[in-house]
Write a structure and sequence with these properties.
Helices cover about 50% and strands about 15% of the residues. The chain contains ten helices and five strands; from the N terminus they run βαβαβαβαβαααααα. Strands 2-1-3-4-5 form a five-stranded parallel β-sheet, sandwiched between helices. The longest helix is centred in the C-terminal third of the chain and has 15 residues. It is globular. It starts with a strand and ends in a 10-residue tail after the last helix.
Amino acid sequence: MIRVLLADDQALVRAGFRALLDAQPDIEVAGEAADGEEALRGVRELRPDVVLMDIRMPLLDGLAATRRITDDPGLAQVRVVMLTTFELDEYVFEAIRSGASGFLVKDTEPEELVRAVRAVVEGDALLSPGVTRRLIAEFAARSKEPSALASLAGLTEREREVMALVGMGLTNEEIARRLVVSPLTAKTHVSRTMVKLGARDRAQLVVLAYESGLVRPGWLG
């Protein structure tokens, strides 16, 4: 059973999400929070698998709450999905840098919300290819001169190649086609790379790919 914590200052939004998620046979809403401080307390007490976190909340905003969650080793298994009103919210980029596994627009289709919750539990970043590429472009515009990461030395050539393709915004299926392997093989390479680098999920691989210089802005096309 996937346990979810809903953190949003709008009761109506929480009620809608709860009704949808509780109707699923493999998902349950473990708790709710109306502000960032309450969300932190709920996460520490309930240890949910996923937190649906609104970016703008009173007392402590969702971005700060996410940093505290992802910086706590004891909460390493908790995945945070940011909720935003607009797809290109100015805080989305920083949310990914802070350790969020992705983000959802609040008016997303119901089936997409359910799919998203299941996806992040599997370790996938909740970013559509189009959104991923926009985030990458934003990261490229803001990134400093890349620095070599010693941790990349432990990767095989194929894993570096796969990491670069993830950094360019390709899905597992696109990577599989590019490398002429099966989607399962591509997913395995991605998973092994994440384990070796200690990355929480695919979103962090994108950040690491740029920070290490493995991917350069000019590759976006």
